Amino acid sequence: MTRVNLSKQHPAAYQAVLALNQEAEDAVARAGLDAKLAELVKIRVSQLNGCAFCLRMHTRDALDKGESTDRLAVVAAWWESQYFTEQERAALALAEDVTELPVPERHEWDTGALDDAQVSAVSWLAIVMNTWNRIAIRSGYPVAP
């Protein structure tokens, strides 16, 4: 498969995604969601999409924000662990819904742990992360030690 660096081929589109990313990050902050929760959402979306570049970047970002290695180790099976709060569990389930677009639609995340602004913020964050995963994967961003 031919790899084309999408950001270099169409820099204006890349800049638009950067602006959308900033809006999603701002929505997360305005909704009162923790920065570590945002990184967990980015990591889970990247796990589902198989994006090694974004996984490495957001795992490092999460560690820099004080996330524990134990929680990062189990985020792929968050529902089986007792590491995550009700709000984090709802956000991770919602991010999975946004990423997988299940049919019929499931609402496991709809427990009341997230208010409307937080549901919207997590949804936008997952949408943007899905976009970044696709850019990184299609561009063949290198992931080497």
Automatic annotation (TrEMBL):
- Keyword Oxidoreductase found: yes
> Pfam families per the record?
CMD
Q: Which organism is it from?
A: Mycolicibacterium chitae
The name this protein carries in UniProt is Alkylhydroperoxidase AhpD core
Q: Does the keyword Oxidoreductase apply?
A: yes
Q: Which InterPro entries match?
A: AhpD-like, AhpD_core, CMD-like
Which keywords has UniProt assigned to this entry? Oxidoreductase, Peroxidase
Write out the GO MF terms: peroxiredoxin activity
- List, for all copies, the residue spans of the domain called Carboxymuconolactone decarboxylase-like: 19-97
Domain of life according to the entry: Bacteria
